[in-house]
Specification:
This protein is of the alpha/beta class and about 425 residues long. It has twelve helices and 23 strands. A hairpin with an 8-residue loop joins strand 19 and strand 20. Helix 2 packs parallel to helix 9, helix 7 crosses helix 8 and helix 8 runs parallel beside helix 9. The structure holds ligand LLP.
Length: about 425
């Protein structure tokens, strides 16, 4: 049997894959394929485990922020917000979505390394509670726009803390090659903090860092917290400003396959809280409010994608292509990053996975693959193929390549399903054509 790790997935008495007690074969019949399926129960479970970790280890002094780039739509914003999470956005479009979902600007954190004037104005008009300034040029620009509007923008500074955890081994370095943020080691971040005090249009309230994604261990986060607290302290000592918060970013790993091994999410807060308490005592600081900014881990394992198997081509001694009715237009992650996924035939979920398949999409592109040489149950045309852990960075990275339609997305909970994003129609494709 294929290894199924997400708590919302089971194999039911019919031998079918189920998600939040909905039979995936029934879902495929009812809504068609390709189909994004998200478990509300699982999303809420993960949100709660993060929120509880703040209560348990940090006296509730802070909260998680959902990084909406992982999966952004109105219903998702409503769900995470009802669990007490703030929302991070990185574009006018994500900001618009959150606002239209009824999220107050005060609970929105606006990131981005090159925000446009229009986006900054939009954020100010909607009283976004935390604009995370990425660079000097943005600091100047925001100060000017806010002053013109007779507003004061509440800002944090995005800092490059010299910790890079993009790979399995994290590195500590003075200089990170990154387009994001103000450099810590050279003093650039401190200079930006100092300069912000001269700008009447901005008020510095926090510091932010983000050290990578799909990180499996806690140590890089602990080092980031230490390094960021040093800057926090320097700002207090030398500029006389006590900041409101420290945002330590997202990046917590999830399961894509059996190989992925990571620590439970509450362990991060436990470890980070311990080092913050220790360091604040040492420096004589009062405890700052802490934010973390998970995206993938909130939603990744709650999502699966269902496809119908089309033609199967067995090229002797080369590979077995199993074609599906989706592809890189609705999940570009293998084509982009060769990302691992667990795949299975949902209507044969209880059977041994004894067939080596290359799952091929329907785009006019040889690299349009979802997975290569992966073990699934022996497939036949008309079977339903499930790809697991597609909740994050799948819908949000989808396109209309080859004028394919973006599939619908449904939310399931306790055996019930509902559409949260309608599937596109051909008319939708032409909406902006002249
Ligand atoms: N905060 C900031 C500032 C970020 O840049 C990111 C992700 C997050 C939070 C959330 O990180 P997470 O918890 O989701 O790892 N498209 C790639 C992932 C790009 C992540 C970019 N930044 C993928 O499909 O793997």
């Amino acid at each position: 049997m294929v290894y199924i790790y997400s708590p919302c997935l089971k194999v039911n008495e019919k031998g079918h894959l189920s998600i939040s007690d909905c039979d995936t074969i029934d879902l495929a019949q009812q809504y068609g394929t390709p189909l994004y399926v998200m478990s509300e129960d699982e999303i809420r479970r993960v949100c709660r485990s993060y929120v509880e970790s703040f209560q348990e280890f940090y006296g509730g002094n802070g909260r998680p922020i959902y990084a909406s780039k992982a999966f952004c739509c109105k219903e998702m914003c409503r769900i995470v917000s009802s669990e007490g999470l703030d929302i991070e956005v990185v574009s006018g479009g994500e900001l618009y979505t959150a606002l239209k979902a009824g999220i107050s600007g005060a609970n929105i954190h606006f990131q981005g390394n090159n925000k446009s004037t229009a986006e900054l104005e939009f954020a100010l008009e909607n009283n976004v509670g935390d604009i995370v300034v990425d660079n000097f040029s943005e600091l100047e620009q925001l100060g000017k726009i806010a002053a013109e509007k007779e507003k004061v923008a509440l800002i944090s500074l995005r800092v490059k803390p010299g910790i890079d955890a993009h790979t399995h081994e994290f590195i500590r370095t003075g200089q990170i090659d990154s387009k994001f943020g103000l450099d810590l080691a050279s003093g650039e971040a401190f200079q930006a903090a100092k300069h912000s005090l001269e700008l009447p249009g901005v008020k510095l309230i926090g510091l932010h860092c983000h050290i990578g994604s799909q990180i499996m261990e806690k140590l890089p986060f602990v080092h980031a917290a230490e390094v960021m607290l040093n800057l926090y302290n320097q700002i207090k000592q030398e500029l006389g400003v006590e900041l409101d918060h420290l945002n330590l970013g997202g990046g917590f790993g999830i399961h894509y396959t059996e190989k992925d091994d990571f620590i439970p999410y509450h362990e991060y807060m436990k470890a980070v809280s311990a080092v913050i308490h220790e360091k604040c005592t040492e420096l004589g600081l009062s405890l700052p409010k802490i934010y973390i900014e998970p995206g993938r881990s909130i939603v990744g394992e709650s999502g699966i994608t269902l496809y119908t198997v089309g033609n199967i081509r067995e090229i002797l001694q080369v590979r077995n292509y199993v074609a599906i009715d989706g592809g890189m237009f609705e999940n570009p992650r293998y084509a982009l990053y060769q990302s691992d996924y667990t795949c299975l035939i949902a209507n044969k979920a209880a059977q041994p996975a004894a067939y080596t398949a290359t799952i091929a999409g329907k785009c006019c592109e040889s690299g349009d693959l979802i997975q290569e040489h992966t073990l699934i149950q022996p497939p036949e045309e008309g079977d339903i193929l499930a790809v697991l852990s597609t909740g994050a960075y799948n819908y949000s990275m989808a396109s209309n390549y080859n004028r394919n339609l973006r599939p619908p997305c449904i939310m399931v909970s306790h055996g019930q399903s509902r559409v949260i994003i309608k599937g596109e129609t051909y008319e939708d494709l032409l909406r902006n054509d002249i």
